Amino acid sequence: MLAELVRRAQHGDETAFEAVVETVGDRCLAIAYRILRDVGIAEDAVQAALTTAWRQLPALRDPERFEAWLHRSLVHRCYAETKRRGRGPNLLALASEPAFARDETLNVENRDQLERGFLRLSPEQRAVLVFHYYLDLPVAEVAARLGIPLGTAKSRLRYGTDALRAALDADARPATGVQERTT
Question: What pTM did the predictor assign?
Fold first, then answer.
């Protein structure tokens, strides 16, 4: 059904493209949020990716691969937004995390630890982790969707996972304070 809507949109059918956006928009926003960790910036990235998709849609050769094509564009927009606005997230936006970003299976403490660890990763590592773990894609498909070599995807997944694990381990260690000397 999505491929048929894409084909119609390729021929200028705006209503079909609106239906495409309704079909993929929430998922794109969830992906962008998980990479950028800021709802406002994620919305900007999704809007830019969808605008680009509309303009470049006639050049898409395989409507069956529309989502992969759109995801690649979306991730590049996320990278551009990160560079344009700086690496850090908007901490006020994190305080009002949207419902689609919550993982109800984690308790608040674990979710906060995971959030802090995830913020320490590069946007490129976040993208690979999101596509692999959130979208449950094999690494080869992650590489294809991101437009990177398979070895690069494997490397980013490995280093990102290791960095996240190290950050979580560091947060789990008790803080050592300065001990008073007794004389």
Answer: 0.76
